[in-house]
Amino acid sequence: MDDSKLRYFASAWLISITLPADSAERYNAQFVNGIDPLAFNQFVASDGDVMPGTYDVNIYINDLLVDSRPVRFSEDSAHGGLAPCLSAAEYIRYGVKIDDDHQPCFALSQTIRQAEQQLDIANHRLIIHIPQQYIEHYPRDYVSPMRFDEGINAAFVNYSYSTDANNGDGGSHQYQYLSLNSGINIASWRLRNNAYWNKFSGQADKWQSIASWAETNIIPWRSRLVVGQTSTDNSVFDSVQFRGVQLGTDVEMRPSSQTGFAPVIRGVANSNARVEVRQNNYLIYSENVPAGPFELNDISAVNRSGDFYVTVIEADGSQTTFTVAYTTLPQLVRAGQWNYQLSAGKYHDGADGYAPALMQSSLSYGLNNTFTLYGGALAAENYRAGAFGVGSNLGGDWRPLSRLYAGGNDAGEWPAQAGRERAFSVC
Hints:
Layout: H1 3-22, H2 37-43, E1 53-61, E2 64-75, E3 82-85, H3 88-93, H4 108-111, E4 116-120, E5 125-129, E6 154-168, E7 171-186, E8 189-200, E9 206-218, E10 223-231, E11 241-249, E12 265-269, E13 273-279, E14 282-289, E15 292-296, E16 308-313, E17 319-324, E18 338-347, E19 357-366, E20 371-380, E21 383-392, E22 397-398, E23 401-402, E24 416-417
Parallel strand pairs: 1-5
Antiparallel strand pairs: 1-2, 2-3, 4-5, 6-7, 7-8, 8-9, 9-10, 10-11, 11-18, 12-15, 13-14, 13-16, 16-17, 18-19, 19-20, 20-21, 21-22, 23-24
């Protein structure tokens, strides 16, 4: 065989091998019953493509399953592929921070540029990655208000009894004392009473009710309503006992990690990373975050002072560190938190003496990581007082307090006061 024939057969053999590789795969729609052949061929017209439509999928946000439901997908002309049609209200329900909840088909990637969406049709998954900063970050010890339990209807009595007997030349003497702490729980209301009884030899016995009150929780406001004998807080003015009505913040409804002051730590992760926070060389917090901006708001400090040292450990092992200044004072409140109390009634000093009517209010608000605004007002017979101040965790607490005093028909005055307080750590 000459060289020309050899080259001819070699070329024909190569063409027979390479031509099928360039042709598209073909499927026989007759093997799939109940499907229109034209629609079937359009569905598989391009390898790896999925036609627009509605599919049952499991929705994952940052690798966390949040829902399982049918989702409609349409072509995404801007980014290619398919885009899910989820309303803004649904994203909010999934914990995404979105201001507008009226859009029926919310364009997530246009609002949050770092957001990514991917349809894994083989596993029926809609995979969404969103920077941690745009996700509602619940504290680690968070309990949903839906799980709050008022308990069962019940009644109880706690008691403590003691007696002393003395025998001497002067005769015999006996002293008896009984303390009672009783209560009744009905639905969301709790009725309480503290009382005591005592008797000394040769004298009439004495029964005294120390305090009686009823209280209930107002869960949407994270507050507690008290009717009866109670006392005001001491955040702005001195605490006093009174009988009346009080409505105020109940910090026990918050997660324990949210009850004290701590700054919100913000940063940026270049990849899936671990964030570690240390105070006084102790590791006090560790959290995994996705790529993008992050925000940590559930940190509990182990000391009243001592800066937070933050380390961001990237997926490739590289580290970035920065420092967040920290010190705390009684007036400081976490950024975005409100504490309030409203009281009205009559002063009660434990005796049947002077009992003027009074009204008192106090309010504090965490403006940001640095400043807390607080103030209050007090009104009683022949007395008025007001106060406001600014607390800071950078250098202490500045209290430009202003008070108004009125005695009888006097005009009163507004003397300005300023104070400064600083917390130090002792190592």
